[in-house]
Amino acid sequence: MASPEPCTTSGPCTRTVAIVGAGAAGALVAIQLCETAARRRTPFELLLIDPAPEAGRGIAYSTLDPRHRLNVPAGKMSCYPDDPGHFVRWLCHHGEPGVRGGDFAERYRYGAYLADTLGRAIMAAQGVVTVRRLRTRATGCRWTTLPGGDPTARLELADGRTVDAHRVVLATGPSRANAEWAPEALRGNDRFIADPWAPGALDAALGQGDKEDVLLVGTGLTSVDIAMTLDRPGRTVHAVSRGGRLPQAHAVDPLPAAACATPLRGLPLPALRAAVRQHIGRVMQTHGDWRPAVDGLRPVTAEIWASMSTEERAEFVAQYGSLWNTHRHRMPPATAEAVGRMRRTRRMRTYQGRLASTAARPDGSLTVSLTTGDGPRTLPVGWVVDCTGPGLRLSDTADPLWRSLLDQGAAMPGPLSMGVATDDGRLHGADGSTTRALWTLGAPRRGELWETTAIPEIRAQAATIAEAVLDPWTASALPAGGGPARRRTRRPTDASGFPLSTHAAAATAYRLGVDRLLKVRAGAPQALRRSVALDPGFALAHAALALIGHECGADVDVSRALADARRAVRERADDYERSIVDVVSRRVLHTPADGDAALLRHLEEYPGDALALAVAVPTIAFSGLRDLDGTAALRVVERTAPAHGGSWFHTSLLAFMRQEEGRYDEAGALAEQALAAEPASGHAMHALAHVHYERGDHEAGRERLGRWLAHQGRGGTHRAHFSWHAALHELALEDTAAVRRRWAEQLSPGKVDGVRALVDSGSLLWRARLAGAWQGPFPIGDVLDTAPVDVLERPATAFVALHAAIALTAAGDLPGLRRLRAHALRADEVQRSVIAPLCAAFEDILEERWTEAARGLERLLPRLPGVGGSAAQREIVEEALLFALVSAGRCDAARGRLEERLDRRSSPHDRRRLTALSS
């Protein structure tokens, strides 16, 4: 075929990247290439060369045996270094909703995950990356240089074709074992299975009724998998290796990794060995388990290996390599249990030694002779299976592609002849140069890194390679329009006037999304998704999606959106955009105090940023700044007033703050002013709803909310919350029929779902029950069914946690409350200091320890503002306190609280309760 032409900015781009191998490593590189190219708008053609029917599986993840599980917990198997929970979330959305990060998933499921993630990355990069899948093998690679062009690789394929590429990534995985250990008579025997992972290789040994014993040569993880596959009643699976050790097991309840306190890099091997033993001994004394010690060495393993001399490396591999591997690469607990049962029932037996000879028997089976530490042993077996795993020395490989690169000097063996020599993945030629655009990752880097075959290492290498491949093709500074860096264009702006690092179409969609957020109207997630689809490299749109998913309960993969924002902001952003992404990152990933500090710094620098101001002020859409005295948001609103020039949005927020201060007349006037300028302002209507409630204008408040909901509020994203406000008026008026009607028409599950149902529907139900306004079946279970398990048991914010506790209490779910309390004790400071004791007080209510419940709730009331939300929302805790006080017989204390409340606002319901307590 013709060689590709160099890519120019004026003509079509024919730059080509070839990935040889489409297993896990190849898929991870392809994912990173597609996503990075889409963010940068860097066009190229991607060739995926592999004969397998499906990309992403390779040998490791093609197995259909459900007993074959990942040897690493699901929480460490994400495709993305910066989004560790991605695989777990994928499993939750693909039929395993209860999976946790510490679970060990089926290997076939992981192959499906890789294939699905790759497919999504390819679709997201359409229009930028053209993908061709060549289902054949690459058998050779020759480099040429076109006149006036870059060096180009010509790849020879097994089907006789050739393809040319500017960049080549060799994702070939581990080299295949060559079975040199096997006696010559065995290698040619039909009963020898040289590659147990080859399609159909084990079929004969799995034949119906076949109970002949089997010998596995090797006792590593491959041997464990094959032993479970071949296990059946009446058969013994024998396994032999030089060390005779099976892999150790992962702990059922793993402990965190324990870092070594002693610097290990550069120590001579004897001193290194002593230091590691001391480290393991200290951890054993502290934790009673050696695993945290070994896990704590993982971050520094590559550094230690790099600091060792060639002789030390060789000595380590010969003397300690097997021991290290059995402790470092461990079996899942379920696998270890299955293997343990096989050994206890003598269906599996292991030997330290080697296979000395084999002889064919008349029936076709084999007699094998082993040399073991206990002397010679002879076994009759039906099959011998090579489970020695991949070969270490790539220089001995029979793979024609690697052979051609080594023979022509385009590659050179790595340390100890293991793998090849590279510079951060880019291959060294025989002369030591790295002039060819040729990379590899994973097992071929074993000699350089030692630990390089697990997904956590490979995914990081894939990201590095994608950057190295695309960096020379990416414009040094993309303007907003996305054209060449040298062409100056005017950047579009957001609604606050700040320039955006994107093109006009994506900016328009972003502005629409933010406008919907500021007006508290539906459609913001859809508009923001449209923005990132138009420009995957637009950091602010990704950040806004992460923000509304985290704080507003929008259906957004928060971790993924945040990771995309952080990747994009590193490549294309100004100081304003970097500051916004930092704010969102800290609110999602760090403590509330850290998130608030970042938000305050941003508003100090950019006081005119309406979106950031909305995040800071806890009106309805966001949780706001969380401070115990409740004045931080007010100070921000007052300080930013000059930058907003009396806009309807700023006036809406100021109205809300004034009602929080108790300045209801001023708040009402400001809300009416904002609504006159923008009738759809949800913030202004929300402020007015609070004004009516706190002034006791229940009839007027219900009527005004009803008119607004029927007209301007029809497209509101928080209609349920306005309905909740109307229901509060109806509870105060003791109009129980109206409350039931509003529940059925506007607040029941199906009308409201997820977090909004928890916050509004669930809290209203409990208020109604405490008020005696709900008789008959109590549908709180329907509300809980709409809320994801994570929201109920592991809420991200204290505000959501408060309402989770309320709903669980209303449902009488004592175990759920205890799980929520355990989460709160491990979460941020507000959850630890407020939510955890609140759960304890609610537990006292459920167990009718009324005095203890009242005492706990009384202590908590002053700290509730730190949870966020409005005083009307937090009032439900006071309602619970009143209930506990009356139930405990402390009627005087209950009367005092009701009198204090009636001094603030009128309420027919509170007046009737006070009369009842006084009689």
UniProtKB/TrEMBL annotation:
<dbReference type="InterPro" id="IPR011990">
    <property type="entry name" value="TPR-like_helical_dom_sf"/>
</dbReference>
<dbReference type="InterPro" id="IPR036188">
    <property type="entry name" value="FAD/NAD-bd_sf"/>
</dbReference>
<protein>
    <submittedName>
        <fullName>Lycopene beta and epsilon cyclase</fullName>
    </submittedName>
</protein>
<feature type="domain" description="FAD-dependent urate hydroxylase HpyO/Asp monooxygenase CreE-like FAD/NAD(P)-binding">
    <location>
        <begin position="18"/>
        <end position="173"/>
    </location>
</feature>
<dbReference type="Pfam" id="PF13454">
    <property type="entry name" value="NAD_binding_9"/>
</dbReference>
<feature type="region of interest" description="Disordered">
    <location>
        <begin position="478"/>
        <end position="499"/>
    </location>
</feature>
<dbReference type="InterPro" id="IPR038732">
    <property type="entry name" value="HpyO/CreE_NAD-binding"/>
</dbReference>
<dbReference type="Pfam" id="PF14559">
    <property type="entry name" value="TPR_19"/>
</dbReference>
<dbReference type="InterPro" id="IPR052189">
    <property type="entry name" value="L-asp_N-monooxygenase_NS-form"/>
</dbReference>
